[in-house]
Amino acid sequence: MQGVLNGFTTIGLVIAVGALLAHLRIVDLGAQQVLSRIAFFVASPALMVITLSRADVHQVLSANLGASVAAVVVAAGIYIALARAVWHRRMGETTIGALSASYVNAGNLGIPVASYVLGDAAFVAPTLLLQLLVLQPLALAFLDADARGGRSSWWQLLTRPVRNPLTLGSLAGVVLSITGWSLPTVVAAPLGLLGDMAVPAMLVAYGIALRLGPGLGRAGSVAELVTTSTLKLLVQPAVAWFVASVLLGVDGHALLAIVVTSALPTAQNIFVHATRYDRASVLARDTILITTIGAVPVILLVAALLG
């Protein structure tokens, strides 16, 4: 349990640094935009190359991944249905909302939680790969299309992800993992240095936005925020448990790993995407805040019940 608390405390303190810098007027929203762009175009792609090159990509084919996929589909699907029918959101806003409701923080929080709560960081690898190689490229394709007025053809929609820096970084990492190739030190060292900047840049930018942006729940629909937070914290892990336990017959430590991973909060990089494309950034910001706080008791409860 100490690992869960340590992971959340670390994230909270770095976010607080960003908020403090904004409060002291050392930085402004312009700095938040710069940090988000650096994270999106440079640091995160470098991090993906390094992270995925060291991962076992064959784990993405694990049968247990079906439960995680089902949980994502249900959570995102419910939000998409409500966003289109009730709140009448555009494609870009709907995409960010769906990500907020289903895209877990499998990297900078999931890895320490998997290490300390589950005993092995490899448990988070399937979800990490699913998000990086499937969910994120698909979402970025829709965001790109929406940014261009939705006039893209299906061919453009399908091919645009491979021109996105995050997707290219992920694909490069997968190729290195599958082939077993190692980058020369002259390349790996600067990539590692740039990748180390990704998570701090995201968190500091997020802290700046918390301090200088609209107050919690003051922009957009409160009902929409409650929906994304509830889907992420309660619905997604519940669906993961049902599919894994009842339909697939998974039990023991493997079941705990699936449910804990699904209960992780919304990833900070969703806010980076929202800022980059100027779509539903306040919804993403607020959902990340609420789910990061709320995930602590949820994961502790799951660990107590299934551990």
Could you walk me through the main structural features you see in this protein, from its secondary elements to its overall organization?
The chain is globular. α1 (2-23) runs antiparallel to α5 (110-118) and α13 (269-277) runs antiparallel to α14. The chain has a single domain (2-306), classed as Na+/H+ antiporter like fold (Up-down Bundle). It starts with a helix and ends with a helix. It has helices at residues 2-23, 29-53, 65-85, 91-102, 110-118, 125-147, 154-159, 165-179, 185-195, 198-212, 222-247, 252-262, 269-277, 281-306. It has 14 helices and no strands. The chain is mostly helical and 307 residues long.
CATH classification, class level: Mainly Alpha
CATH architecture name: Up-down Bundle
The number of distinct structural domains comes to: 1
Task: Name the helix and strand elements from N-terminus to C-terminus, one letter apiece.
Answer: HHHHHHHHHHHHHH
User: β content, as a range?
Assistant: under 5%
Distance between the termini: 11 Å
Structure class: mainly alpha
Tally of helical runs: 14
Backbone shape: globular
Total strand count, please? 0
Q: What level of helicity do the residues show?
A: over 70%
Specify the biggest β-sheet: none
CATH fold group: Na+/H+ antiporter like fold
Instruction: Quote the average pLDDT.
Output: 85
Subunit organisation of the chains: single chain
The whole-angstrom Rg is 18 Å
Low-confidence stretches: none
